[in-house]
């Protein structure tokens, strides 16, 4: 067994206060076990139960962020670690805060010519019924309604008719002040992980997701074995390569680093890919897709965890390298 003493004392941040706490605890437990199996002096650290200032007091020298959603993937914990001077895995403050906001992500991608489905933004308490009834006129039916800043498909609804719009928007608004209404793209659902930073970043194999009745929701993501994940994806070789190139560009324009995963829909008629969102602290559970794709590329779960930990950095250090 290789002893990774050069990493020093490592905190695996898991749990946290977001709606994805349960998934984060599963991710963090897997990462912790993997790092320890590789000889890393790694310890669990739950920011919902301990103050982050303890990281400095207890002598932690780097952090593996296995937190998902708010207070873990949105730039807040990244900012705290910047102030503490403790290098961490994944994207920095700005890239994290933009990437968790699906609307801001879309605005950046559209400005850079990266295709993403048409959308409308509704703000909690500021929409009237008449306005809601016009959303399907603009985006078509079915359409997707989701909170702008939640992950793991929490609060996502597929709206089939005008009568369902109000309920779906109200449910999403209960989770977030901003509600994203999005054009539904019928076709293949795929996801593509990215490892690395800047010019050295590379896309891993694309995974095609085949969920029961096309419903890739929270339950089907984490708690059933009914969803099929195809890697190799079975897409034509040129199509997979084009998606890999597109997600790399999308990752770089957001300023992401370390790792990430971008979800894509491929229009069944035109075969044009549309990017849905990016995850800057992807899941690392037994059902998670980054480890699955990495395995197809010959990288074990344990080696992936060590590789990610080795990429831990601080924003100002990365800026100094540029």
UniProtKB/TrEMBL annotation:
Comment on bound cofactor: Binds 2 magnesium or manganese ions per subunit.
Binding locations of Mg(2+) 2: 277, 279
Name the needed cofactors. Mg(2+); Mn(2+)
Q: From which residue to which does any coiled coil extend? A: none
Q: In which pathway does it act?
A: Cell wall biogenesis; peptidoglycan biosynthesis
Q: What is this protein's record name?
A: D-alanine--D-alanine ligase
Q: Which UniProt keywords apply?
A: ATP-binding, Cell shape, Cell wall biogenesis/degradation, Cytoplasm, Ligase, Magnesium, Manganese, Metal-binding, Nucleotide-binding, Peptidoglycan synthesis
